[in-house]
Amino acid sequence: MSNADTDQVIIASKREHLGNRILSLWEQYNYVVIFIAILIAYVVVAKNLTWGSVMLMLRQSAVIGIMGFGMALVILVGDIDLSIGSGLVLISGLTVMVFNATGSIFIALLAALGLGIAAGFFNGILVGLAKMPPFIVTLATMLIFRSMALYISHSRLYELDPSQASFSLFHYQFGNSPFLSIPIVGLVFLLVAFACIYMCTSTKYGKKIYALGSNAKAAKLAGINTEWLKVSLFVICGLLVGFASFINVAMNRSVSPATTGVSFEMYAIAGIVLGGISMSGGKGKVAGIIFGTISFTLVSRIIDAFELSTEINNTVKGIILLLAIALQMIKKPSKD
């Protein structure tokens, strides 16, 4: 082989190596590129990107983002929880009732967290121990939770009692006030995000989650109690739904049993997918959920900027989600 041929082979090899490296980085961090693309689209369409608008997006992402982290933990082991939207409305409504009865923000928080844990444990026992299909189980509890919320309220609004002494602290100062120009609920969302990221990346428990999602049989043979691990993940998911419910009440003051939380499970899944988490389980960086959730909020803001009819909103969101998934499917070619 001549020197020229050798040089050509080396150049081709370097190009292939560079291409594989780029595709590898794309697989790991495509959620950042998608976020930046959506952000640029928002800036072009809305022509308004200020610190205030960024903080508003963070605030609007808080409730779905917190629930999204809970859902992501379940999805990472190959399961799903369709009940989180209905769980949100039921727990939010009951949290309002507890606050109105006691006037205590702390007791209301404990009630929200306790109810979330109970709902998650119920789902987890049926999925993890009884080995019922998670789609069917959580579809059933989705219907149950929404129905219970309607029945308990007689289809009327749950509304915080403004005569309670701590009402202003709960609704205005916690739910709708900033700290150093950052919304308090946005800071809470980021704290939950960092806690989940740490758990998944730096603890044995997090490694067990990815091991179970990647290969359930191998995880079982490695000594992981896969049944109770699934139960614990549904409990954490329920806990985060309960916390999101508390924040939802603080932000909005009232809860409609018919409309609150409708499609929130789908929005959470959309944020998870945009964040690069694989729906088949075992793959994806939990940190991507921050980008994915805010990306989905940005899409809503773009739709608002175009002043499109509300009836077409979900169509646009669906199209953008499909495009994002198509881009994420660009992968490094496997070697046979």
CATH architecture: Orthogonal Bundle
Strand content: under 5%
- CATH class group: Mainly Alpha
- In spatial order, strands of the major sheet run 1-4
Order of helices and strands: HHHHHEHEEHHHHEHHH
Helix content: over 70%
How many angstroms does the end-to-end distance come to? 27 Å
Structural class: mainly alpha
Shape: globular
User: How large, in whole angstroms, is the Cα Rg?
Assistant: 22 Å
What is the number of helical segments per DSSP (H or I, 4+ residues)?
13
Structure summary, number of beta strands: 4
Number of domains: 1
Given as residue ranges, the uncertain stretches (5+ residues, pLDDT < 50) are none
Residue-averaged pLDDT: 89
- Write down the CATH topology: ABC transporter involved in vitamin B12 uptake, BtuC
Largest sheet: 2 strands, antiparallel
How would you sum up this structure in a few lines?
The chain has 336 residues and is mostly helical.
Features:
13 helices, 336 residues, ABC transporter involved in vitamin B12 uptake, BtuC, mainly alpha
List the helices and strands and how they pair.
Blueprint (H helix, E strand, L loop, with lengths): L2 H44 L4 H25 L8 H19 L2 H25 L4 H20 L4 E2 L7 H8 L3 E2 L2 E2 H19 L1 H11 L1 H6 L4 H27 L1 E2 L8 H11 L13 H19 L6 H16 L8
Antiparallel strand pairs: 1-4, 2-3
Helix pairs in contact: 1-12, 2-7, 2-10, 2-11, 2-12, 3-4, 3-5, 3-10, 4-10, 6-10, 7-8, 11-12, 12-13
Structure notes:
There is one protein chain. The protein is an all-alpha fold. It has one domain (63-328): ABC transporter involved in vitamin B12 uptake, BtuC, CATH 1.10.3470. Helix content is 74%, strand content 2%. It is built from 13 helices and four strands. The strands form two sheets. A two-stranded antiparallel ribbon has the order 1-4. A two-stranded antiparallel ribbon has the order 2-3. Helix 2 (51-75) crosses helix 11 (264-274), helix 6 crosses helix 10 (226-252) and helix 7 (184-202) packs across helix 8. The chain starts with a helix and ends in an 8-residue tail after the last helix.
